[in-house]
Automatic annotation (TrEMBL):
Protein species of origin: Cetraspora pellucida
Endpoints of the signal sequence: none
Assembly information from the UniProt record: Homohexamer. Dimer of trimers.
Name of the coding gene: MET3
Residues that coordinate or bind ATP: Q198, T199, R200, N201, G292, R293, D294, H295, M334
APS kinase domain span: 396-548
Name of the protein this chain belongs to: Sulfate adenylyltransferase
Annotated binding of sulfate, by residue: Q198, R200, A296
E.C. numbers: 2.7.7.4
Lineage, highest ranks first: Eukaryota, Fungi, Fungi incertae sedis, Mucoromycota, Glomeromycotina
Primary location: cytoplasm
Pathway in which this enzyme or protein is active: Sulfur metabolism; hydrogen sulfide biosynthesis; sulfite from sulfate: step 1/3
Domain Sulphate adenylyltransferase catalytic residues, every copy: 176-388
């Protein structure tokens, strides 16, 4: 039998409120609405489905204070993370919020009405106190402290909710279970002892060994329960991770393990978060919970020191183990022993034994370079999934972003490179000459600073989308302003390569070769605000390459660019 939920009763508000669904929906038509943030949406989903039992809504001031100070609700029940609904002062005034008023909570993705909240109180939190007591520090290097100070609104609105509907998901639905569904699933499978494993990272052989070992020690089955709500900024996206977990599941003995996805918004709160995670898993029907090294750790603070000690989480949860009623399975880091081809927790490995490890940073380096990832570290099926979303540079897109005066020769270089890259093959090549963009994307824009910035922002957006799709993009606007170029770099770089190429032909060269007589028109005042004549050109200080067609042939310039692409691994086989 699964253990009883936290606080004794599973607060599945969907089941509780199903009988009045139509009534709530009707009432909601005349109520003010709050559109939830992504974090609030995750929190509401787990409040409504009972994952956060015994909560039935967002915390009022006394529960909030009690959780912040003592890790308990006012009724004495353990709860370590404040679950609050932050609202701005302007929304509170505009919507006329006050105790006993009712408010609809809406899904930010599709505007669906999810619940009705009855306001109990409205209070202003002391954010510094919350940061220090909950996260142990007021350092903005902690992602939740940063979020608290930069994103969380000034007021918290406390009150219970009545459920209208669960948020709609379109991804991996068959792996999404409510606590009641997962409990029923375990019952159906005759699982009486279930050890849950929390993760926000891809899983490899070490994790499979660790979970099987935990199950063996406790004679239990395994629930792989990864977070698919919000994790640490910079983590691998949940789509990739779930495909990894799906690839890993067949590596367990048939019937040993189940994959369930948890729509949790993590706080990276280390020890307090570990306690919260244990409570949540208890609600989902697990009897055991694995806490490993640096559980829910946010990394280092602004002084370069880890926010929490590697086993602080195990210590804190151990302190409450008697009243928690979910057994914590503490685990040391697992290391691979090549001599015996097995994984073992580091505290069990005899001194002097050779071990192997591949860190997250090293894994990312290998993925980036298309380098070998050994079978002792991960399974080929898992590596394949990771390689698909982290293709080596030879399969990634890139943008060559040219900047320079009109008639500097940038269009000639861009067109020649289009031919060279087409000859190379392997990618579709997109050419965004200034004139093409001006007619196809920016025909209504003029040449004011604002209009030029907007034009470059559009080029940045389109180039980023094409780069993301693996194309080679050659963009060649004048792009006279450094800020707009930097913004384009920032937009594109997150999806692939970016090279700023300054075509540094002297203005006299551009003018003397101007067959169309555009400069003449600018000099005579027929065209106004012309770059280099009566409008500025900010010389790049951050160019990746500077070329000069007045001194170099187009072929030489193209070759210089090709050599750079080869050096960085974007073209050619390694
Ligand atoms: S920008 O600043 O990057 O948005 O400029 P861009 O999109 O590259 O547009 C340059 C083309 O527009 C013609 N043109 C002007 N350029 C600069 N200043 C003014 N006032 C101006 N008016 C028109 C210019 O001849 C460029 O033409 P192409 O044929 O694209 O080189």
């Amino acid at each position: 039998m699964a253990h009883s939920p936290h606080g004794g009763v599973l607060k599945d508000l969907h089941i509780r409120d199903a009988y009045k669904h139509d009534e709530l929906l009707l009432e909601s038509e005349n109520l003010p609405s709050i559109v939830l943030t992504d974090r609030q949406l995750c929190d509401l989903e787990l409040i409504m489905n009972g994952g956060f039992s015994p909560l039935e809504g967002f915390m009022n001031q006394s529960d909030y204070q009690s959780v912040v100070n003592d890790l308990r609700l006012t009724n004495g029940c353990l709860f370590s993370i404040p679950i609050t609904l932050d609202v701005s002062e302007s929304d509170i005034n505009a919507l006329d919020f006050a105790p006993n008023k009712r408010v609809v909570l809406r899904d930010p993705r599709d505007d669906a009405k999810l619940a009705i909240l009855t306001i109990q109180d409205i209070y202003r939190p002391n954010k510094i106190e919350e940061a220090i007591k909950v996260f142990g520090d007021n350092d903005l290097a902690h992602p939740s402290v940063k979020y608290l100070h930069n994103n969380v609104k000034e007021y918290y609105v406390g009150g219970n909710v009545e459920a209208i509907q669960a948020p709609t998901h379109y991804d991996y639905i068959s792996h999404r279970f409510t606590p009641a569904e997962l409990r029923a699933h375990f019952k159906k499978l005759n699982w009486t002892r279930v050890v849950a494993f929390q993760t926000r990272n891809p899983m490899h052989r070490a994790h499979r060994e660790l979970t099987v070992r935990a199950a063996r020690i406790r004679q239990a089955n395994v629930l792989i329960h990864p977070v698919v709500g919000l994790t640490k900024p910079g983590d691998i996206d949940h789509y990739t991770r779930v495909r990894v977990y799906q690839a890993l599941m067949p590596k367990y003995p048939n019937g040993m393990a189940t994959l369930g996805l948890l729509p949790l918004a993590m706080r990276m709160g280390g020890p307090r978060e570990a306690l919260w995670h244990a409570i949540i898993r208890k609600n989902f029907g697990a009897t055991h919970f694995i806490i490993g090294r640096d559980h829910a750790g946010p990394g280092k603070n602004s002084k370069g020191v880890d926010f929490y000690g590697p086993y602080d989480a195990q210590v804190l949860v151990g302190k409450y183990k008697d009243e928690l009623q979910i057994e914590v399975v503490p685990f040391q880091m697992m290391s691979y022993i090549p001599d015996s081809d097995e994984y073992m927790p580091i505290d069990e490995i005899p001194k002097g034994t050779q071990t192997l490890n591949i860190s997250g940073t090293e894994l990312r380096r290998r993925l980036r370079g298309g380098l070998h990832i050994p079978g002792w570290f991960s399974y080929p099926e898992v590596v394949k999934v990771l390689q698909e979303t982290h293709p080596p540079r030879s399969k990634q897109g890139f943008t060559l972003f040219f900047t320079g005066y009109y008639n500097s020769g940038k269009d000639l270089i861009a067109k020649a490179l289009q031919v060279i890259l087409n000859q190379q093959g392997g990618r579709s090549v997109s050419l965004l000459l200034g004139e093409i963009v001006r007619s196809e994307l920016s025909s209504e824009l003029g040449f004011s600073r604002k209009a030029r910035d907007q034009n470059i922002a559009r080029i940045g957006f389109v180039s980023a989308e094409l780069t993301k799709a693996g194309a080679a993009v050659i963009a060649a606007p004048i792009a006279p302003f450094a800020d707009a170029r930097a913004h384009a770099r920032q937009t594109i770089e997150q999806y692939g390569g970016f090279y700023l190429i300054h075509v540094n032909s002297p203005l006299e060269y551009c003018i003397s070769n101007d067959r169309k007589g555009i400069y003449k028109k600018a000099q005579s005042g027929e065209i106004k605000g012309f770059t280099g004549v009566d409008d500025p050109y900010e010389i790049p200080t951050d160019a990746d390459i500077v070329v000069d067609p007045s001194e170099q042939s187009i072929s030489d310039i193209c070759h210089q660019i090709v050599l750079l692409l080869e050096k960085d691994g974007y073209i050619g086989e390694r």
